[in-house]
Protein backbone atom coordinates (compact mmCIF):
# COMPACT_ATOMS: atom_id res chain seq x y z
CA UNK A 1 0.00 0.00 0.00
CA UNK A 2 1.16 3.49 -0.79
CA UNK A 3 -0.26 6.34 1.18
CA UNK A 4 -0.53 9.76 -0.28
CA UNK A 5 -0.77 12.64 2.07
CA UNK A 6 -2.49 15.55 0.42
CA UNK A 7 -2.22 17.84 3.40
CA UNK A 8 -4.90 19.77 5.23
CA UNK A 9 -5.79 21.94 2.25
CA UNK A 10 -7.52 19.18 0.30
CA UNK A 11 -11.27 19.01 0.59
CA UNK A 12 -11.31 15.21 0.71
CA UNK A 13 -10.16 12.57 3.18
CA UNK A 14 -6.39 12.80 2.79
CA UNK A 15 -5.45 9.13 2.71
CA UNK A 16 -5.70 6.99 -0.40
CA UNK A 17 -4.55 3.45 -0.77
CA UNK A 18 -3.06 1.93 -3.86
CA UNK A 19 -2.46 -1.72 -4.37
CA UNK A 20 1.26 -2.36 -4.80
CA UNK A 21 1.34 -6.01 -5.67
CA UNK A 22 3.46 -5.80 -8.82
CA UNK A 23 6.54 -3.76 -8.00
CA UNK A 24 8.04 -4.16 -11.48
CA UNK A 25 5.08 -2.31 -12.91
CA UNK A 26 5.25 0.34 -10.23
CA UNK A 27 4.93 3.34 -12.48
CA UNK A 28 1.86 2.00 -14.22
CA UNK A 29 0.04 0.56 -11.19
CA UNK A 30 1.03 3.09 -8.55
CA UNK A 31 2.55 6.26 -9.84
CA UNK A 32 0.10 6.97 -12.65
CA UNK A 33 -3.07 6.42 -10.59
CA UNK A 34 -1.51 8.43 -7.79
CA UNK A 35 -0.80 11.31 -10.13
CA UNK A 36 -4.28 11.00 -11.57
CA UNK A 37 -5.77 11.33 -8.11
CA UNK A 38 -3.66 14.39 -7.39
CA UNK A 39 -4.55 15.82 -10.78
CA UNK A 40 -8.29 15.35 -10.35
CA UNK A 41 -8.11 16.78 -6.84
CA UNK A 42 -6.38 19.87 -8.16
CA UNK A 43 -9.10 20.26 -10.74
CA UNK A 44 -11.72 19.85 -8.04
CA UNK A 45 -12.92 16.57 -9.50
CA UNK A 46 -13.76 13.43 -7.62
CA UNK A 47 -10.78 11.07 -7.75
CA UNK A 48 -11.23 7.65 -9.30
CA UNK A 49 -9.89 5.98 -6.21
CA UNK A 50 -11.91 5.51 -3.08
CA UNK A 51 -10.34 6.85 0.07
CA UNK A 52 -9.39 4.28 2.67
CA UNK A 53 -11.49 4.17 5.79
CA UNK A 54 -9.21 4.53 8.78
CA UNK A 55 -11.86 4.37 11.47
CA UNK A 56 -11.52 0.61 11.93
CA UNK A 57 -8.13 0.83 13.58
CA UNK A 58 -9.38 3.58 15.82
CA UNK A 59 -12.35 1.56 16.96
CA UNK A 60 -10.34 -1.50 17.95
CA UNK A 61 -8.06 0.67 20.03
CA UNK A 62 -10.78 2.51 21.84
CA UNK A 63 -12.80 0.18 24.03
CA UNK A 64 -16.15 1.37 25.21
CA UNK A 65 -16.38 2.59 28.76
CA UNK A 66 -19.43 1.96 30.91
CA UNK A 67 -20.10 3.39 34.32
CA UNK A 68 -22.20 1.19 36.55
CA UNK A 69 -23.91 3.53 38.95
CA UNK A 70 -25.32 1.04 41.47
CA UNK A 71 -22.01 -0.80 41.75
CA UNK A 72 -19.93 2.39 41.58
CA UNK A 73 -17.71 0.65 39.08
CA UNK A 74 -16.32 1.40 35.63
CA UNK A 75 -16.49 -1.45 33.14
CA UNK A 76 -14.29 -1.31 30.05
CA UNK A 77 -15.37 -3.26 27.00
CA UNK A 78 -18.67 -4.24 25.45
CA UNK A 79 -18.38 -7.90 26.42
CA UNK A 80 -17.24 -7.18 29.95
CA UNK A 81 -20.20 -4.83 30.36
CA UNK A 82 -22.68 -7.46 29.17
CA UNK A 83 -21.17 -9.98 31.57
CA UNK A 84 -21.28 -7.50 34.41
CA UNK A 85 -24.96 -6.70 33.85
CA UNK A 86 -25.76 -10.38 34.23
CA UNK A 87 -23.54 -10.93 37.22
CA UNK A 88 -24.96 -11.65 40.67
CA UNK A 89 -22.92 -8.86 42.16
CA UNK A 90 -24.53 -6.33 39.81
CA UNK A 91 -28.04 -7.66 40.43
CA UNK A 92 -27.38 -7.40 44.15
CA UNK A 93 -26.23 -3.79 43.93
CA UNK A 94 -29.07 -2.93 41.58
CA UNK A 95 -31.72 -4.29 43.96
CA UNK A 96 -30.09 -2.55 46.88
CA UNK A 97 -30.05 0.76 45.04
CA UNK A 98 -33.66 0.44 43.89
CA UNK A 99 -34.77 -0.30 47.45
CA UNK A 100 -32.95 2.69 48.87
CA UNK A 101 -34.28 4.91 46.09
CA UNK A 102 -37.82 3.75 46.73
CA UNK A 103 -37.41 4.32 50.46
CA UNK A 104 -36.04 7.78 49.83
CA UNK A 105 -38.95 8.64 47.54
CA UNK A 106 -41.51 7.42 50.07
CA UNK A 107 -39.74 9.30 52.80
CA UNK A 108 -39.76 12.51 50.75
CA UNK A 109 -43.45 12.11 49.90
CA UNK A 110 -44.53 11.62 53.49
CA UNK A 111 -42.23 14.29 54.85
CA UNK A 112 -43.28 17.01 52.43
CA UNK A 113 -44.81 19.85 54.42
CA UNK A 114 -48.33 21.04 53.59
CA UNK A 115 -47.83 24.63 54.70
CA UNK A 116 -45.94 25.52 51.53
CA UNK A 117 -49.06 26.86 49.81
CA UNK A 118 -48.64 30.39 48.43
CA UNK A 119 -52.05 31.56 49.68
CA UNK A 120 -50.80 32.52 53.12
CA UNK A 121 -51.28 36.24 53.30
CA UNK A 122 -50.07 38.01 56.33
CA UNK A 123 -52.05 41.11 57.22
CA UNK A 124 -49.84 44.08 57.61
ZN1 LIG B 1 -23.12 -3.16 38.16
UniProtKB/TrEMBL annotation:
SUPFAM superfamilies: beta-beta-alpha zinc fingers
Top-level taxonomic group: Eukaryota
Every Zinc finger double-stranded RNA binding domain range: 66-91
Ranges of Polar residues composition bias in the record: 103-124
Alphabetic keyword roster: Metal-binding, Zinc, Zinc-finger
Keyword Mitochondrion on entry: no
InterPro entries documented for this protein: Znf_C2H2_jaz, Znf_C2H2_sf
TM region positions: none
Region (Disordered): 87-124
Name of protein: Zinc finger double-stranded RNA binding domain-containing protein
Upper taxonomic lineage: Eukaryota, Metazoa, Chordata, Craniata, Vertebrata
A Pfam family matched in the record: zf-C2H2_jaz
One GO MF term attached to the UniProt entry: zinc ion binding
Feature: compositional bias, Basic residues: 87-99
Amino acid sequence: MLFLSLGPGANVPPVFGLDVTDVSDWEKTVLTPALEVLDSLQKGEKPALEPIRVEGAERSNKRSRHECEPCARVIIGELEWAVHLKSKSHQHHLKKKRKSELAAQQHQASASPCDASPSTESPS
